[in-house]
Specification:
Elements (H helix, E strand, L loop, with lengths): L4 H4 L8 H17 L5 H14 L13 H14 L3 H8 L3 H4 L4 H8 L1 H19 L4 H14 L2 H15 L6 H21 L3 H15 L1 H35 L4 E5 L4 H11 L3 H4 L3 E7 L6 H15 L1 E2 L5 E2 L12 E6 L5 E8 H9 L4 H4 L3 H19 L7 H13 L2 E5 L5 E5 L4 H8 L1 H5 L1 E6 L2 E3 L11 E5 L9 H4 L3 H32 L6 H10 L5 H9 L5 H12 L7 H18 L5 E3 L2 E3 L4 E3 L11 E5 L5 E5 L5 H7 L4 E6 L7 E10 L4 H12 L3 E10 L2 E10 L2 H12 L4 E7 L10
Parallel strand pairs: 2-6, 14-16
Antiparallel strand pairs: 1-2, 3-5, 4-5, 5-6, 7-8, 9-10, 9-11, 12-13, 12-17, 15-16, 15-17, 18-20, 18-21, 19-20
Helix pairs in contact: 2-4, 3-5, 4-5, 4-10, 5-8, 5-10, 7-8, 8-9, 8-10, 9-19, 9-20, 10-12, 11-12, 11-20, 12-13, 12-14, 13-14, 13-16, 21-24, 24-26
The structure holds manganese (II) ion.
The site of manganese (II) ion has 4 residues, from loops.
């Protein structure tokens, strides 16, 4: 199909002048930012990319090559890892989008580049399709990183350019991409220390996910700019003069804050922009010699605090103890003119590059290729460690743990030998033990912090010296899950518990079978499931587990099974309620189902139904699960069955969304708790039926010791309707809580 001749240049390519110029600029940037540049390789990669994409047009209407060129430029400017990555950026979409094969790339450019492009092709498939399998995407992403770290580096650049040009995407895709960026790419970029990329991800996501707030913040900042600049200069001017007198070479500037962090602060504190954005921030970047960098930072600190009074409790020394992503800087907050607080960061140029570009910036400063390889190996070890999960744990937990660990602030603790370890804030001796070694974690029975015995759930603080006490007999307890915070400890504890749980389940099954045999009982799987349900177990497995671990007496199950086999029935009110609930779901379905959007397309000919485990209503985030018969069942994203379905049957999950269609009512349930006062029931029903013209389908109440509890099943049109209803009911005098009712077993063991 292709001859390799085009690479040597004998095949003529009509490359637009504009792109020739951009390529030349790219190569100049490479020389500026990279240790070594194989210009020939980059030019060849460009020519191949141009050739392969020559008939493709981007959504924006531009020739496609503009995209890989822009991605390569971001890679050089913001990541600056190496020239192979630049070539990979230029070719990142060719295998995915054109006829070109990976073999062709291998033949033309060698194994390394082919491996990177292959990794990029594999993950791009995952991201193009569906939002709901995000947990799977993380896994794929991590796996691809484990082969070559440049896969994720190019993907970072690719995603950034896609975010910058998101306007040309259809609306439903914008939201999906922006959500994915904020949930996945921003924390990952942060973990690698690509702070500038992370900030831009966040700000751009904000623009698409919360356009109103984005507008409000940008306009607000614009309005106050003049006044802010005047004030900042009152601090900068004297500082600048003093520092020059001391002979420093430096750059000093007012630092603008990340829009997204302002947005979060406003949301968290429920305050308007001007109250949140009250701290001024200044940065001093020193052009010191490497050997004198640290000393110079401290001298500058001394000059700063001679001029302005520091607030000692706000001082941080990240130079002596860098953050785990390599970040170094001195932070101080001083009292500026008029008593206003000013944050000042002091760092060298090298520290600054690392803060903006992550550890990849080391390239610029370390001359030798071996150093580069060690750094890469360190990254890969980290990634592999995250992946080290011999047992498939719940994928959603994986994402949660993962992003949790990334965003948490860090603490620094010491081992008895004085080794320094970095842990997320909230870490306990158990987290510490697993960090030291998996075996230490498994067997830890107690801990001493600064010489004193503490409980295993004790929250460690920076500077603590931690000593773990182990016992061969100890093994992880389910309680630990409640307080450990590191991904490693969580996954190991979960593994150990699952293992024990499986064994208990096995034992329970054996006990049951033996006892049932003696009673000459033989239950089919269906009958067993029914029995478990009658006993309020969510599953047969749970029943066996509780029998096996002695939590539940097998005799009770036997008694009920014998009764049942004699044809006697007695149903609890809870059972009846559930029965009603399911019936209503069925009847609501019959009244006509609204069209759903699958991948943004309206579907009218699909058979759909709504899962009774989570009762989705329009406005809920939902996904579809394709049955073997070809029907689609709609679940809420937060459904308790979702992790299982996503993890084990990801290929049957489809992304769906509600289309706008009125006049269909959905079943939903509310639980109302409050004081048992005269007229309560009447007030609740009045609010529901009069105010919002909602139909009540059934209502059960119980009163106990002055407490009113009502379970109401009603028909609503969408989530908004339900929310308004909840708000109204909450306002009734004496109502303490209104919850959306789901068919869930409250004593469900959370593992
Ligand atoms: Mn791309």
């Amino acid at each position: 199909m292709f001859e390799s001749s085009f690479i040597s240049g004998s095949r003529r390519l009509d490359v637009d002048e504009r792109y020739v110029k951009e390529l030349d600029e790219l190569i100049d940037l490479c020389r500026l930012n990279l240790v070594s540049v194989d210009e020939e390789m980059i030019r060849r990669a460009f020519r191949l990319g141009f050739w392969a994409h020559k008939d493709d047009i981007r959504n924006s209407g531009e020739p496609y090559i503009a995209h890989p060129l822009a991605v390569a430029r971001i890679y050089v400017e913001q990541i600056g890892f190496d020239d192979v990555g630049v070539a990979a950026a230029l070719l990142h979409d060719v295998v995915e989008d054109t006829e070109l094969s990976i073999e062709f790339i291998r033949d033309s450019f060698g194994d390394t580049l082919a491996l990177i492009i292959d990794g990029l092709t594999k993950i791009s498939g995952a991201f193009e399709s569906r939002d709901i399998t995000q947990a799977e995407n993380v896994r794929k992403l991590m796996l691809s990183m484990a082969s070559d770290i440049r896969v994720i580096f190019v993907k970072f650049a690719d995603r950034l350019h896609n975010m910058r040009t998101l306007d040309s995407m259809p609306l439903h895709k914008r939201h999906r991409i922006a959500n994915e960026t904020i949930a996945l790419f921003a924390p990952l970029a942060h973990r690698f220390g690509f702070f500038a990329i992370k900030s831009e991800y966040e700000d751009l996501s904000l623009k698409y996910l919360h356009p109103e707030e984005y507008e409000q913040i940008t306009v607000g900042l614009q309005d106050g700019r003049k006044e802010r600049e005047l004030y900042i200069n009152k601090v900068i001017d004297p500082l600048e003069n003093k520092l020059r007198d001391h002979g420093f070479e430096f750059e000093i500037y007012g630092r603008s804050k990340n829009l997204y962090s302002i947005f979060q602060k406003m949301k968290r504190q429920g305050k308007p922009l001007d109250e949140v954005y009250d701290v001024f921030a200044i940065r001093i970047v020193l052009n010191s010699q490497e050997s004198k960098g640290k000393e110079d930072c401290w001298r500058v600190y001394s000059v700063v605090t001679d001029l302005f009074k520091p607030l000692p409790e706000r001082f941080r020394d990240f130079i002596s103890v860098p953050k785990s992503n390599g970040y170094q800087s001195l932070h101080t907050t001083v009292v500026g003119p008029d008593g206003r607080k000013v944050e000042i960061q002091i760092r060298t140029r090298e520290m600054h590059d690392i803060a903006e570009k992550g550890v990849a910036a080391h390239w610029k400063y370390k001359e030798s290729v071996e150093d580069a390889d060690t750094e890469m190996e360190r990254f890969l070890t980290w990634v592999r460690d995250l992946l080290e999960n011999p047992e498939p744990e719940k994928a959603t937990d994986f994402v949660k743990d993962f992003s949790l660990n990334l965003y948490d602030k860090e603490i620094y603790v010491f081992s008895p030998r004085g080794d320094l370890m970095t842990l997320p804030r909230g870490a306990t001796p158990v987290d510490f033990a697993f960090m030291v070694h998996t075996e230490v974690g498994y067997h830890c029975i107690g801990a001493k912090v600064n010489g004193k015995m503490v409980p295993l759930s004790y929250e460690l603080g920076s500077g603590d010296q931690v000593e773990v006490i182990t016992s061969k007999k100890q093994s992880p307890s389910a309680d630990w899950i409640k307080f450990v915070v590191t991904q490693k400890a969580r996954s190991r504890v979960r593994q150990a518990i699952n293992e024990r749980r499986r064994k208990a389940e096995e034992t329970g099954r054996e006990i049951w079978e033996k006892r049932a045999e003696r009673k000459k009982l033989s239950l089919s799987k269906q009958e067993l499931a029914h029995l478990a349900k009658r006993l309020k177990f969510p599953s047969i497995e749970q029943m066996f587990y509780e029998i096996g671990s002695g939590l539940f007496d097998v005799s009770e199950a036997l008694k009920l099974a014998v009764l049942h086999s004699q044809g006697e029935h007695e149903e609890g009110s809870e059972d009846r309620l559930k029965l009603h609930f399911e019936q209503f779901v069925d009847s609501a379905q019959e009244s006509g189902s609204p069209a759903l959007l699958i991948d943004g397309e309206v579907q009218t000919d699909l058979v759909t139904s709504y899962a009774s485990c989570c009762n989705p209503i329009p406005g809920d985030e939902v996904f579809g699960f394709l049955s073997r018969a070809g029907a689609v069942k709609i679940h809420r994203v937060g459904c308790k069955n979702a992790p299982n379905l996503i993890l084990n049957q990801a290929d049957r999950i489809i992304a769906v969304d509600w289309s706008r269609q009125k006049d269909i009512r959905f079943v939903s349930g509310l639980r109302v708790m409050g004081e048992d006062r005269v007229g309560m029931l009447n007030d609740v029903t009045t609010v529901i039926s009069k105010n919002l013209k909602t139909n009540i389908r059934s209502l059960t109440i119980s009163t106990d010791d002055g407490v009113f509890e009502g379970t109401i099943i009603l028909l609503v049109s969408d989530l908004d309707h339900l929310r308004r209803l909840i708000e109204r009911i909450k306002r009734i005098e004496g109502v303490h809580g209104v919850y959306r009712f789901e068919q869930q077993y409250e004593d469900d063991v959370q593992l």
